[in-house]
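User: quick one, sequence for these C-alpha cells?
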C-alpha cells in the first residue's frame, strides 16, 4: 500500500465545502436563528466521555449534515445517553428520564407534572420520578405504555434522521403515545404534519436508537 504525505492532492477528489467536518468529542447544536432557519452544525462543546464519544460518531455527523430542517435549534451539547448496552438509547441527562417529570401524568393529567425525588422507579438504566406512588405503580406495571417515543429524544429531529434533546413541557400525547420535542415552537411545527413526521421517525428510529451508521 502506498502512503501519501498528509495534504497531498488526489486526482478527481476535492473538498466538499458543503460538508462540515465531524468531531465525535466536540459537538453541539447550532444557535437558533430569529427566522427559525438553519440546520444542525458542529460547534465547540465540552469533550464527551470516551465511550459516549465513540458511540456518538455517527450521531454527531448525522446532526451536522443530515438534519437541515428549516428550524434552528438552540445551542446544547449532544444528549446524554443513559441505557443498558443492549437497550435502545434514551435521552436521560444525569440518568433521569423525561427531565424529572412524571411520565404517567402526561396521560392521566394531560399536562407536564414534575415528579418527586422520593418517588421513583428505574427502567433500562434510567430513573423516572413520579408525582404519586399510584403513578409509580402504574409505570412499574406497564412501563412501555408511558415511556416517550424515540427514547425521549425530539420527535421532530428523529423524523429528520437525527437526535436532539427535549423539553419535557413540549409534549404531545397522540394515539396513546407520548412524544417530546426540542421546544414548544418545534412541537408546533411537528404538530402541523404529525402523522407524516411520526411515520418518518418510526422508520429512522431503529438505526438512530441502536447507534447504527
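Assistant:
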Amino acid at each position: 500500500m502506498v502512503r501519501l504525505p498528509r495534504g497531498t492532492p488526489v486526482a478527481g477528489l476535492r473538498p466538499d465545502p458543503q460538508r462540515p467536518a465531524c468531531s465525535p468529542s466536540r459537538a453541539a447544536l447550532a444557535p437558533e436563528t430569529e427566522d427559525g432557519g438553519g440546520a444542525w452544525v458542529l460547534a465547540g462543546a465540552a469533550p464527551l466521555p470516551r465511550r459516549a464519544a465513540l458511540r456518538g460518531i455517527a450521531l454527531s455527523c448525522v446532526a451536522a449534515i443530515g438534519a437541515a430542517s428549516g428550524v434552528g435549534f438552540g445551542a446544547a451539547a449532544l444528549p446524554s445517553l443513559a441505557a443498558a448496552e443492549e437497550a435502545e438509547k434514551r435521552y436521560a441527562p444525569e440518568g433521569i428520564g423525561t427531565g424529572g417529570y412524571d411520565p404517567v401524568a402526561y396521560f392521566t393529567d394531560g399536562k407536564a407534572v414534575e415528579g418527586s425525588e422520593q418517588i421513583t422507579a428505574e427502567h433500562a438504566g434510567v430513573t423516572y420520578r413520579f408525582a404519586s406512588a399510584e403513578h409509580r405503580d402504574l409505570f412499574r406495571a406497564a412501563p412501555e405504555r408511558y415511556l416517550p417515543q424515540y427514547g425521549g429524544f425530539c420527535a421532530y429531529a428523529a423524523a429528520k434522521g437525527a437526535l436532539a434533546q427535549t423539553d419535557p413541557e413540549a409534549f404531545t400525547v397522540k394515539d396513546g403515545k407520548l412524544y417530546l420535542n426540542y421546544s414548544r415552537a418545534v412541537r408546533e411545527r411537528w404538530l402541523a404534519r404529525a402523522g407524516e413526521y411520526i411515520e418518518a421517525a418510526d422508520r429512522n428510529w431503529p438505526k438512530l436508537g441502536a447507534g447504527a451508521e
